[in-house]
Amino acid sequence: MKFTEHRDASINIIRHYMPGKVTINQQEYHQSCIITQHQVINDWSITNIEQLNAEHLQPLLALKPEVLIIGSGETQVFPPAIIFGLCAQAGISLEVMNNAAACRTYNVLTTEDREVVLGLIL
Question: Residue 37 and residue 113: Cα distance in Å, rounded?
Answer without folding.
Answer: 8
